[in-house]
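Suppose you are handed a protein chain with no further information: no name, no annotation, nothing but its sequence. What can you learn? This example shows the usual starting point.
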Amino acid sequence: MLRAAARLGAPLYVSFTLDSDHRLKSGASLKEAIKTTDAEASDAKPAFYGINCSHPLEFEPALEPGDWIQRVRCLRPNASAMEKIALCKIGHLEDGDPVDLGERMGALARRYPHIDVWGGCCGTWDRHLSEIARNVRAAR
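A reasonable first move is to predict its three-dimensional structure. Written in structure tokens, the prediction is:
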């Protein structure tokens, strides 16, 4: 995909999902995944990276210090901290706690001011997005 996008001159970003062990399903850390993708993509590197379909409790511990973290510019969290397999089995989207999610995202905005794409994934609705926007705006 990266090479095809580069041939077309189209920017592309790559988003990763982390599990409750703060790693990708493959076992790689977020840092390893980003560094490997950048190294293998050479001249077709993604414009930036993101994290989606994970709750902050799953991905925040993976945000290790280093220059690589500047490549992460997008966070689209799940509303619920429930384990993904459990979420798939309940047969509905779980709301989680919109206020807590917004506060966590605001704290991340303060910690990582370079992140500039905010949104939501599984189970996030207008209440979640309003809380995220309010808290990110307050952090800025």
